[in-house]
Design goal:
- The protein is mostly helical.
- It has three domains: 103 residues; 171 residues, Intergrase catalytic core (hpI Integrase, Chain A), CATH 1.10.443.10; 60 residues.
- The chain is 60% helix and 4% strand.
- α5 crosses α10 and α15 packs antiparallel against α16.
- The protein is extended.
- The C terminus is likely disordered.
């Protein structure tokens, strides 16, 4: 009696269970949801498809793509992208595991256009009102939210900060150690006196926290009564309530404060590569989504660039003799060095390549004359030293 071969449903489920060994539960749920959507469509439209080898791009996958576009309520592009990428990864895993399955069932050009995520920093007025309200409240949760605004860290990273997160790097340099978080990497975020004050206040408030919270939060800066996710939800609720009390004009989330931090850093002169490190990103394109550039920013940058252009070719002041240079080899050598310097500055301003080449040849001759004078100066110095040495 031959054994019954596993169905496509069973094969996908076994593969997802194997992925669950290394993936987070949320990621496993996403893979399983994508697989169930495809299987539900195949059972209804193509009930004879039972094996991975039977899958075809047309009509099976292309038909499913059309079905996703006709969902009611309609799925956003981001959700459809996640489904397609998850299934593509599952198919690649099946092929690597020895299953017979056609390549390129899902191609990268099948993905819908990604939504353009605009930066969503708080308005300056809302940002100021919110920070004032958090300082007025001055409890553990309010200071935690002030810390996220002052450092740009994620709310989940704030929840996992250790008691000794503040590290001294030099006599006047401090940084906040942010543990391994969303992108599986840790980092050090430079801090100022205000952040040090907030951390000190949090440590003081921690000492009077309920004993049950401290017992559940050994080593954490912020005591919690329950799970990590539950505590993060409490922090978000605290921020929402503070924004309502402050009279903010729009909905406030911890991530919007992170956008505000990024925009503020750029306006203060922080470069994008440095900002990427501050935010804990691995891709500069992600950092660009966090930064809002307004017309006022463009005006400031434009006029600063124009001022730099005016002073771009300013010839630096050189040390020149107060009187006429001495008529000896040292004086001549000094004048040749000054001439070489001025000639090089002038040559770099020229747009005429032919004239620049001629000046370069002339400059080489000047350097050759200066080198010959150096050879003459050295014997003269030796003779002078010989005459001044007592017998």
């Amino acid at each position: 009696m031959s054994l019954r071969r596993p169905s496509l449903d069973q094969i996908l489920e076994v593969h997802i269970q194997a992925l669950a060994v290394t993936l987070r539960p949320a990621s496993v749920r996403q893979y399983r949801s994508a697989a169930h959507r495809l299987l539900r469509y195949l059972h209804a439209a193509f009930p004879n498809v039972h094996r991975p080898a039977q899958l075809r791009r047309d009509p099976h996958l292309l038909g499913w793509f059309r079905c996703l576009c006709q969902e009611d309520p309609p799925l956003c592009n981001k959700t459809r992208i996640c489904y397609l990428l998850d299934l593509r990864h599952l198919f690649q895993g099946l092929a690597a595991g020895g299953h017979s399955i056609q390549p390129d069932l899902i191609r990268m050009d099948d993905l819908p256009a990604r939504p353009r995520t605009l930066p969503r920093p708080l308005s300056p007025a809302d940002d100021q009102l919110l920070q004032q309200e958090l300082r007025r409240t001055d409890d553990m949760l309010a200071n935690a939210m002030l810390l996220t605004r002052a450092t740009g860290i994620r709310v989940g990273e704030c929840a996992d900060l250790s008691v000794d997160c503040l590290r001294q790097l030099a006599p006047d340099q401090w940084a906040l150690y942010v543990p391994v978080g969303k992108l599986h990497s840790d980092r050090m975020v430079p801090v100022d006196e205000e952040v040090r004050r907030i951390v000190s206040r949090l440590i003081s408030l921690r000492s009077v926290a309920p004993t049950t919270h401290l017992a559940n939060s050994d080593g954490f800066l912020l005591p919690r009564g329950g799970s990590h996710n539950g505590f993060c939800a409490t922090l978000r609720d605290t921020l929402t309530a503070a924004a309502q009390r402050a009279g903010c004009s729009s909905h406030v989330t911890p991530h919007r404060m992170r956008h505000s931090f990024a925009t503020e850093m750029v306006r203060l002169g922080v470069s994008l590569p440095a900002l990427m490190q501050l935010l804990g990103h691995k891709d500069i394109s992600m950092t660009l989504r966090y930064v809002e550039v307004t017309l006022q920013d463009l005006q400031r940058e434009f006029h600063a660039a124009r001022q730099n252009a005016i002073h771009q070719h300013t010839i630096p002041a050189l040390s020149m003799p107060s009187n006429n240079p001495s008529a000896d080899l040292s004086g001549i050598r000094q004048m040749l060095a000054t001439t070489h310097h001025l000639l090089e500055i002038y040559r770099r301003q020229l747009g005429d390549q032919q004239a620049s080449r001629k000046l370069r040849r002339l400059d080489r001759r000047i350097l050759a004359v200066a080198s010959e004078i150096d050879r003459l100066v050295k014997p003269e110095k030796r003779r002078h030293i010989g005459r001044s040495t007592p017998e």
